[in-house]
Amino acid sequence: MTKSNEPIYVTKPVLPPLEEFLPYLQQIWDSRILTNGGSFHQQLEQALCEYLGVKYISLFTNGTIGLVTALQALRITGEVITTPYSFVATAHSLLWNGIKPVFVDIDPDTLNLDPAKIEAAITPSTTAILAVHVYGHPCAVDAIQKIADNYNLRVIYDAAHAFGVQYHSGSLLNHGDLSVLSFHATKVFNTFEGGAIVSPDAKTKQRIDHLKNFGFVDEVTVVAPGINGKMSEFNAALGLLQLKGIDAAMQQRKVIDARYRKAFDNVQGIRCFSAVHEDVANYAYFPILVQPGYPLSRDELYRKLREHNIFARRYFYPLISDFPMYRGLPSAAQSNLRVASQAAKEVLCLPIYPGLTDEQLDSVIGLITG
Ligand code: T4K
């Protein structure tokens, strides 16, 4: 039990000092511009392009509407190859577009879509690959692009976990046709709720911007059956302020990540994931796999931690393919998803966030190693 017995969650949102936010609120109150692409919205888009190293970004009300809109923007239909090992929003975005998800197994080293298994799942109806950079660790972007080029498929990355990750000497978000971010409270960079689509050219950004605003081009012109996906001025202003603290926040996460790694180095049956794949990591999550050799099963360890007020999470269990709206699909069969099924049984995401104290970290580590 932690000394203070204060619960420790898997994450805790970073917030700036309230007094620093008040001038932003004052501006909103003065201007009475609350939404619809106001000045904070424009400023945040520009600031994020610079910070992330991407060309075009469109802010959204959340990552899920971003995913739904990204599929619309590229006019994706038919079947899409995707991973069962993600948050359920990934596959839901396909169903919301009337698209059939085709689940493909994951790579045991990264827990991302296994490129070696994609080709066998392609049919004449396949139009795209929707892959996820799980925990912010890069997918095999080159191998995926090669397959996409060979079969004339589009590639959308669910980059909800991948804020700020650098890979192959640039932003990870520049790979594929589009990347979709989440700025949810539980993410590395949060605007309470929020999200964004990164696009490679001005024309695509313009289509996305129309789609997130009902399809309006001007007062009297509607060019597409768009949705309301706009980020409000409140969230955008907060984002501008959050950006000032993001490097310090990532640095704090890095320190915690290193402490966990060192502590579990010689613990039999606890496997950590290597961060060597990325040039700059964001330490969004700290997943461990609880494997044979460890005295407790994953669920026993999960419950032991809960008994001590530590709320680690089993991201991603159950697999998306095990939820009722997906499990009837032929690709959802466990025999097709052996690696993902095993990972879902073993994974436990430990608390990692700026502000997690040494004492709290010691108590999490002590319960796992002790
Ligand atoms: N794609 C992927 C790969 C994703 O992981 C997600 C979201 C999306 C797409 C969709 O993006 P958004 O539409 O959400 O922008 C959480 C988040 O709600 C979800 O955003 C996230 N993935 C997912 C991995 O985690 P839950 O059900 O685990 O959230 P919850 O409420 O249990 O929060 C976890 C812990 O965080 C709580 O125990 C305490 C702490 N917490 C949470 C919130 C909301 C706080 O301290 N303050 C808070 O305000 O889904």
TrEMBL record:
Xref: InterPro entries: DegT/StrS_aminotransferase, PyrdxlP-dep_Trfase, PyrdxlP-dep_Trfase_major
Q: What is this protein called?
A: DegT/DnrJ/EryC1/StrS aminotransferase
User: What GO MF terms are annotated?
Assistant: pyridoxal phosphate binding; transaminase activity
**Which family, according to UniProt?**
Belongs to the DegT/DnrJ/EryC1 family.
Positions of the catalytic residues: K187
Q: What UniProt keywords apply to this chain's record, in alphabetical order?
A: Aminotransferase, Pyridoxal phosphate, Transferase
N6-(pyridoxal phosphate)lysine: modified positions: K187
Organism from which the protein derives:
Sideroxydans lithotrophicus (strain ES-1)
Q: Which Pfam families match?
A: DegT_DnrJ_EryC1 (PF01041)
Please give a single GO biological process term from the UniProt record: polysaccharide biosynthetic process
PANTHER family associated with the record: PROTEIN RV3402C, TRANSAMINASE
Which CDD domains does this entry report, sorted A to Z? AHBA_syn
